[in-house]
Inverse folding.
């Protein structure tokens, strides 16, 4: 298995967007995986063990919006540990100058390239980052994810207007429980609540099924700003929020 170096430049126009995406994913988990091919870069972070995913968020970005003139023999995988610190360090890169990126890669026996270290530099500053081991983040193919998150498989969906969603986040910050309840009593009305403190009617739907689900309150902060309205898709085991090139999936939790 040969080791080699791949060099290119970062797309200055897309650099800030790249940092924003990494920063957003680091709110889910401090280790982020990138799967890079010549067309797309699939970025994700997740919380969970084995086959149980508690929370997952991903973006799909055009590779040439991140990297200029990237030439590679095969697809590359990169796992960034301590992502919050990595993003803060990138904040010191002056994008008024050319920004270079160097990958030290290893060819994998099963095919593909594993990025072992990354250097991002301009004339004055070099940021060096060692990659995490492949086993530290579950490998997920984008095609498999699309099948899992196909809204044709949802049970139902509902909308929350942005002003209501912002109020929900503020109410959630005031009160002490860890879970938010999503429910309907079969009257076509959907509510979000911390039952011991507040309840807000957010939508009226055609489906008259009764349901009640709990999700971790802290993950409300991972719903992207500016999305209006916020569309929640309920699947049998998880809640999904789709936003253009982004998916946020949160597993339902038990309350006792």
């Amino acid at each position: 298995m040969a080791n080699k170096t791949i060099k290119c430049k970062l797309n200055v126009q897309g650099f800030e967007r790249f940092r924003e995406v990494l920063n957003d994913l680091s709110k889910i988990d401090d280790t982020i995986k990138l799967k890079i091919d010549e067309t797309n870069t699939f970025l994700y972070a997740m919380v969970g063990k084995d086959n149980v995913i508690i929370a997952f968020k991903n973006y799909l970005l055009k590779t040439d919006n991140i990297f200029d003139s990237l030439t590679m023999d095969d697809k590359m995988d990169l796992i960034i540990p301590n992502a919050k610190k990595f993003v803060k360090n990138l904040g010191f890169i002056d994008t008024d100058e050319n920004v270079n990126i160097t990958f030290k890669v290893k060819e994998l026996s099963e095919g593909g390239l594993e990025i072992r270290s990354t250097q991002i530099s301009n004339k004055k500053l070099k940021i060096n980052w060692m990659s995490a081991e492949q086993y530290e983040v579950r490998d997920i193919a984008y095609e498999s994810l699309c099948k899992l998150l196909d809204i044709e498989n949802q049970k139902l969906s509902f909308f929350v207007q942005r002003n209501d969603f912002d109020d929900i986040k503020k109410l959630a910050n005031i009160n002490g429980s860890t879970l938010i309840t999503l429910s309907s009593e079969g009257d076509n009305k959907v509510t979000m609540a911390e039952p011991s403190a507040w309840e807000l009617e957010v939508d009226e739907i055609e489906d008259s099924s009764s349901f009640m689900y709990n999700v971790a309150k802290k993950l409300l902060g991972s719903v992207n700003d500016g999305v209006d309205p916020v569309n929640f898709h309920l699947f049998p085991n998880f809640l999904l929020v789709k936003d253009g090139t982004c998916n946020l999936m949160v597993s339902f939790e038990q309350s006792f």
Q: What stands out?
A: The chain is about 15% helix and 45% strand. The chain has a mean pLDDT of 91.
